Q: What sequence folds into this?
């Protein structure tokens, strides 16, 4: 090995879902929103002054922070933003998890958490969810598992299951010496937010995104709410890393989207209704479907065709769907390799998906 090779930081990167590019495809694999962003986003885009692109953007993202402050009734100094919630979460790991004690998160959750822990050399403990994929909250109590931080996605991914705000509060209450990050990427689809608790707990960071409920995955906007001291610490680290995270277009369109509450609520409601309808349809076809509070379903096929080797047969179904240009997500990991994660598309897309499943099961 050459001398310089010994100095390379070794990481096993996160594997994002496929981004296939076919004209005719049904893309239900990366939890994107099937509906366009608010029309106000189009308006904001049309108002972008090309000449202004010469200039650096407002590093404080004032327009976006003001919009979020108004919509969520949170003081401006309690709001942070980044390039998607991935950037926000990564900054939070870098900022808060430096005690040398292991951080805690579930064994089945967003698979970026252990990647950041690896990148920043943060020790971690992945605590098993129970048989029904529920969090065992006592495992997160600091007296049981002394820790240097806690990260919980609520609703969780890829399970789609949400715990109540009281349940999450109990975990926060038992960890007042650590920062607790609650990743609410999917909360707008029926979950209970712990946002009101940032006033009560100075160690709580609530992380959100524009990628799902606001149909803006392509614009890469994430944000977080927390006590002003936490937000200042995050900004100090961010400004030591990259001062200008969001570009002008993201700041302007993000603000426009945030302020259009009516459109936002309408699209979320549509997705929830489609989710419930297709959850029932999958159940009627014999699938075991977890109770979702997200914009996806986590479902395991059951019945003669699958019972002999459910993991292998589930993978085959995933491949068969792919051949028809219907993309869903399959995780070849213990405990979840018998499930498909299906993003909620438009009713038309979901109908094509379910018709395919019906035929697949019956031949
Ligand atoms: N948290 C969870 C639980 C997610 O599923 C995702 C989406 N991959 C993210 C955070 C990151 O989303 P984004 O960076 O697009 O905001």
A:
């Amino acid at each position: 090995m050459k001398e310089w090779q010994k100095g390379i930081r070794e990481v096993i990167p996160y594997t994002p879902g496929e981004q296939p590019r076919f004209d005719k495809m049904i893309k239900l694999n990366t939890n994107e929103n099937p509906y366009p962003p608010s029309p106000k986003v189009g308006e904001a885009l049309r108002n972008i002054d090309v000449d202004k692109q010469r200039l650096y953007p407002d590093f404080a993202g004032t327009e976006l922070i003001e919009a979020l402050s108004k919509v969520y009734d949170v003081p401006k100094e309690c709001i942070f933003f980044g390039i998607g919630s991935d950037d926000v979460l990564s900054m939070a790991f870098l900022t808060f998890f430096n005690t040398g004690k292991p951080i805690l998160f579930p064994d089945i959750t967003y698979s970026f958490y252990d990647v950041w822990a690896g990148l920043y050399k943060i020790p971690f403990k992945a605590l098993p969810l129970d048989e029904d994929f529920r969090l065992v909250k006592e495992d997160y109590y600091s007296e049981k598992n002394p820790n240097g931080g806690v990260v919980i996605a609520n609703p969780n991914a890829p399970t789609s299951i949400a715990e109540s705000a009281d349940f999450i509060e109990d975990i926060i209450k038992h960890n007042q010496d650590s920062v607790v990050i609650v990743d609410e990427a999917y909360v707008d689809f029926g979950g209970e937010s712990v946002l009101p608790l940032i006033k009560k707990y100075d160690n709580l960071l609530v992380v959100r995104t524009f990628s799902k409920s606001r149909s803006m995955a392509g614009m890469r906007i994430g944000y977080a709410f927390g006590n002003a001291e936490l937000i200042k610490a995050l900004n100090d680290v961010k400004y030591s890393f990259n001062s200008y995270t969001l570009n002008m277009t993201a700041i302007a369109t993000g603000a426009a989207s945030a302020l259009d509450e009516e459109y936002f609520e309408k699209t979320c409601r549509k997705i929830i209704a489609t989710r419930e309808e297709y959850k029932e349809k999958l159940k009627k076809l014999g699938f075991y479907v977890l109770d979702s509070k997200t914009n996806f379903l986590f479902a395991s096929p059951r019945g003669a065709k699958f019972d002999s080797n459910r993991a292998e047969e589930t993978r085959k179904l995933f491949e068969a769907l792919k051949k028809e240009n219907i993309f869903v997500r399959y995780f070849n990991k213990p405990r979840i390799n018998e499930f498909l994660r299906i993003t909620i598309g438009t009713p038309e897309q979901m109908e094509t998906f379910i018709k395919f499943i019906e035929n697949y099961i019956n031949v």
Remarks:
- The pocket of 4'-deoxy-4'-aminopyridoxal-5'-phosphate is lined by residues 84-86, 110, 153, 157, 183, 185, 209, 211, 217, 222 (CB under 6 Å).
- The longest strand covers residues 204-209.
- Residues 261-284 form the longest helix (24 residues).
- The chain is about 35% helix and 15% strand.
